[in-house]
Amino acid sequence: MRGKHVLIGVTGGIAAYKVGTLIRELVKSGAEVKVMMTEAGARFVSPLTFSALSKNPVLTDLWSSNQSSDSDISTQHIDLANWADVLVIAPASANTIAKLACGISDNLLTIVSLATSRPVILAPTMDAEMYLHEVTQKNLATLSERGYFIVPPAEGELASGLKGPGRLPEIKILTDTIENILTHADRDLIKKRILVTAGPTYEAIDPVRFIGNRSSGKMGFAIARAAAQRGAEVTLIAGPVALETPRNVKRIDVESAQEMLSAVLRYSKKTDAVIMAAAVADFTPAHPAKQKIKKQPGVHSLDLPLKATPDILAALGCSKRNTILAGFALETTDGLSGAKEKLRKKNIDLIVLNSFNKQNRVFGSHENTVTIIDKRGDVERLPKLPKFEVANKILDKIRDLL
Ligand code: C5P
């Protein structure tokens, strides 16, 4: 971690005392460490302790600065946000997690968290009841979806005397996570143009009804977010989804397979890689009605003729030159052989096979279990991972092929 800038945010929690060991380990491995603390954090451990261990002044107050002029105070949060290669909030209290989930920025730590474009790691540490409370879980899910890395708390005896999840994880787990994330924060995709598609498509039956599927778009959005964080110029073509646009990503919204095809053809010129994570409908109503189809008394069925949609990925594969093409496959039978066949038929470089079973629901989940197969025949089976980590694994492969 030599030369890496690790910014640690300490909030109010008894586990704050363990952060001293974290700082020492990081400094020992060559990182430069700066610490900022909330007011509550500074009640548990004196800033002086962390200042001595990190060999840097500890920042606690938004309105005070080590520099002398007012203009330094007004920009110190931006300077810190830009200085960091990674921000680690440990211990992260329920209160700070809730503030981050809704974008409240009322102290230095929450302002810097909002201002930084670098990866943020959260170590939720609190009483088990607070951790397991549905609002805390919902806030953590929101942050995870937004690309924050959540290191789950360890289970065991808590300061209250109760047992459950809520302890700060072992320092080794935290340093390993930081190291792992810093290797992906190297901006190794700088100047690369990447086009990602995500979400379902809606195929109109009439002006108010459609045929769709259960794709939430989370996988494709995670890829777009991770690629942008690694420095790529990212265009995201999204079907109808309810997700926030990741930072530094150009988003184009489409609805049908036909609209997605037009957008992909338009934006895929001069791209280095196209990642088709969208669950594009294979069939669309052949004759969508101009007006809403009415119920007719005595009519108990409706025939809805469908026609095949254009296969976007196969079309790109047909005219493929130097662009790396990646697709997804979701099969309920013949997973691996079906995916390999798809790779060959569509003339693409990489296919990501979703495991679809009771343990891995794929749709709407924050986690995914996939197998990545490339055109050389390499097969990499990944364990169940957060979608953001799956995204980085896919991007590692793409980087190697570029
Ligand atoms: O053939 P199948 O639909 O299973 O292939 C899935 C892959 O092909 C996905 O990457 C999907 O985005 C892409 N696809 C496409 N156009 C379609 C159907 C699927 O690009 N009409």
Structure overview:
- The protein is an alpha/beta fold and 402 residues long.
- The protein has 2 domains: 180 residues, Rossmann fold; 194 residues, CoaB-like (Rossmann fold, 3-Layer(aba) Sandwich), CATH 3.40.50.10300.
- It contains 14 helices and 21 strands.
- It has an 8-stranded mixed sheet, sandwiched between helices. A 5-stranded parallel sheet has the order 2-1-3-4-5, with helices on both faces. A two-stranded antiparallel ribbon has the order 6-7.
- Helix 4 crosses helix 6.
- Bound molecules: cytidine-5'-monophosphate.
- Cytidine-5'-monophosphate binds next to helix 12 and strand 16.
Offer a few descriptive terms.
single chain, 402 residues, alpha/beta, Rossmann fold, 14 helices, 35% helix, elongated, binds cytidine-5'-monophosphate
* Spatial shape: elongated
How much strand content do the residues show?
Answer: 15-25%
Distance between the termini: 26 Å
Average pLDDT works out at 91
Strand order of the largest sheet: 12-11-8-13-16-17-19-20
Contiguous uncertain segments of 5+ residues: none
Say which molecules are bound, naming each kind only once. Answer: cytidine-5'-monophosphate
CATH architecture of the largest domain: 3-Layer(aba) Sandwich
Biggest β-sheet: count, sense, barrel? 8 strands, mixed
Count of individual beta strands = 21
CATH domain topology of the largest domain: Rossmann fold
The helix count comes to 14
Write down the domain tally.
Answer: 2
- Main structural class: alpha/beta
Mind telling me the CATH superfamily name of the largest domain?
CoaB-like
- CATH top-level class of the largest domain: Alpha Beta
Helix content: 25-40%
The Cα radius of gyration reads 24 Å
